[in-house]
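Task: encode each sequence below as C-alpha cells.

Item 1
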Amino acid sequence: MEQNSVHIYLEDQVLDHCIRMDKVKRLTSENGVVIFTKSSCCLCYAVNILFQELRANPLVYEIDHDPEGREIEKALLKLGCNAPVPAVFIAGKLIGSTNEIMSLHLRGSLTPMLKGQPLS
C-alpha cells in the first residue's frame, strides 16, 4: 500500500507541474509581452521600467504574490530560463532574463521584436 501512496504522490506532483506549465504557456500566448517577476527583485524592476519606457505595455506577473509561485518558478526553469525571474516572453516566445534583455536593448534588437505587440 505504501508504494501506491508514493506513486499517487508523484503523479500529483507531475500533474501540478503540468498545470503550472500550462498556466505559463497560456499567459505568454494570450499576451504580447509578459514579464514574470518577484516584487522584491531589483533586476525585475529594472526590466519592467525598460519595457514601460519602450511603451510595450507588458503583463507583469509577480510570482511571489501567487500561492503557486514556486511551481511557476520551476516551470519557467524547465522552459529554459537561466534565472526564474525576470523571465521575459514576447509573442509567446521566451526571450530571456535580465542579461539577454539588456544585451538586446543595447544592440538595438529589442525594439524591433516589439513590433506588432500592443503599445501603451
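Item 2
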Amino acid sequence: MQNEPFFKRDGQFYVPQPSCRGPWNPQSLHGRVIVGLLGFEIEAKHGSPDFMPARLTVDMYRLPGFDPIEVKTTVVRDGNRIRVVDAEFISGGVSMARASVQFLKRTENSPGESWHRPDWEVPKPADIEAPTDGRQGMGGMWAMRPITGGFGQPGPR
C-alpha cells in the first residue's frame, strides 16, 4: 500500500484517485471519501477559529463514479452564535450527495463542573500490529489497524 491522496486538484475540480474505490462497484467511489470531501470543503471555505463544527449531516442519493468532482457550498445562516452551511457534491455534472454543517460559536464553559467524556486510552497507530487479514482495508487499498473488536463487533461507546 502506498500513501496517496484520495483526490488530486485540477482547477475547481477534484479528480478521484484509485484509492477512492468503493466496495460495491469498482467504478464507484467509497462513501467515506464523499463524506470526507464534503466536510473538508465546508470547513476550508467557511470554518473559522471562532466557530466549531457541531454537526455534519450527509445524504448520498447517487453512486458517483470517477468523473471530476465539484463541491458547491452555500451559507444558509451566518449569525453571531450559529453558522449553517450546505454543500453539494457534483460528479460528472450531476448532483450525487449533499451535506449540511452546523457550526457553533466557541465560548467559555459556564462556571461549575461540565460533563466530559472520559479519556480514551489507545495505542498510537505505529504501535498497533499490522493486520494479516487481506480482507481488511479494502484488500490493501487502505491501512486499517483495529484498536479493539472488528467489523460486526462492538467497541467502546
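Check on item 2: DSSP finds two helices and six strands in the chain. The radius of gyration is 19 Å.
End of task.
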